[in-house]
Amino acid sequence: MSKKRFTILNSGTLLKVLALAVALLGVYASPYGPGGGGAQADPNNAKAGSLLMGTVIRVADGDTLTVRDVDGRSQKIRMHAVDAPELQQAHGEQAQQWLSAQVLNKPVKIVINNTDRYKRVVGKVVLPGEPCGQALCPGDVDINLLGIEQGHLWWYRNYANTQSRVDRQAYEAAENLAREQKLGLWGKPKPQAPWEWRSQQRLNQ
After folding, report:
1. Are the C-beta atoms of residues 79 and 148 closer than 8 Å to each other?
2. Strand, helix or coil at 12?
3. How far, CA to CA in Å, does 191 sit from each of 123, 186, 197, 205?
4. How far apart are CA 115 and CA 158, in angstroms?
5. What's the pLDDT score for residue 46?
6. pLDDT value, residue 134
7. In the Cβ-directed half-sphere of 19, how many Cα atoms lie within 13 Å?
8. pLDDT < 70: residue spans in the chain
9. Kind of pairing, strands 141-142 and 51-61?
10. Cα–Cα distance for residue pair 129/139, rounded to 1 Å
11. How confident is the model over 33-76, as pLDDT tens digits?
12. φ, ψ (nearest 5 deg) of residue 69
């Protein structure tokens, strides 16, 4: 009698173990790997390099937006390694309008770098191109880089060491070219870096 109960219990445990193994296999077989594809990043436990997918539902300014992920959660995103003029600064509203035109109500991928002290996901905002079955595809557009290229965003050099070498070189080259061509904010006389403007505002309070 007791032996029969023991066998049934082991069978049940075995089925649970097999179910868990199948579930784990499904996650790791995804082209996005753990945390990608349908699995969404937890903003309190965001891992560098993981992917968040969703639709942009709000653009607060030129470098901050809100995404509704595939699970229906709203997550605030701070664009990585770039800084937009504040709304009170010259070109601040233009930067917000430009970002809205690029991504508002559109699907995006967020390549996560970290979570900041305000619990915002910090990452690269990517506008998807043609699907290729991978996390990132050749036709994808790096909106962070595009904003620098078109003169709406500064390259935030304080965070250069958190970028890949390829991104660091691309962002620097894009800003240098935008400066030379006086695009966007660079068309204004002596544009003030937003981090300097914020520091000045704190001193004046």
Report:
1. no
2. helix
3. 25, 7, 10, 22
4. 16
5. 66
6. 85
7. 6
8. 1-46
9. unpaired
10. 4
11. 223 333 344 555 567 889 999 999 999 999 999 999 999 999 99
12. -80, 180
Contacts (Cβ under 8 Å, ≥6 apart) of 30: 36, 37, 38, 39
Distance between terminal CA atoms of the chain?
80
Task: Read off the amino acid at residue 171.
Answer: Y
Q: Distance between CA 74 and CA 76 in Å, rounded? A: 7
| Whole-number pLDDT of residue 135 | 83
Spatial distance between the Cα atoms of 139 and 74, rounded to a whole number of angstroms? 26
Tell me the C-alpha distance between 41 and 160, whole Å: 23
Concatenating the DSSP letter of every residue in 25-87 gives: HHHHHSTT-TTSTTSPPPTTS--TT-EEEEEEEEEEETTEEEEEETTS-EEEEEETTEEPPPT
Structure tokens that stand for 42 in this block: 């937890």
For residue 78, what are its two tokens?
A: 């701070």
At 203, list the tokens: 């001193």
Q: CA 24 to CA 172: how far, in whole Å? A: 41
Which pLDDT score is estimated for 14? 42
Q: CA nearest 52: which of 63, 62, 64, 66?
A: 66
Place of tokens 């097999």: 18
Structure token pair of residue 35: 């945390």
CB 52 within 8 Å of CB 112: yes
- Give the pLDDT confidence score for residue 59 in this predicted structure: 98
Closest by CA position to 77, among listed 120, 43, 39: 120
131, 124 Cβ separation under 8 angstroms? no
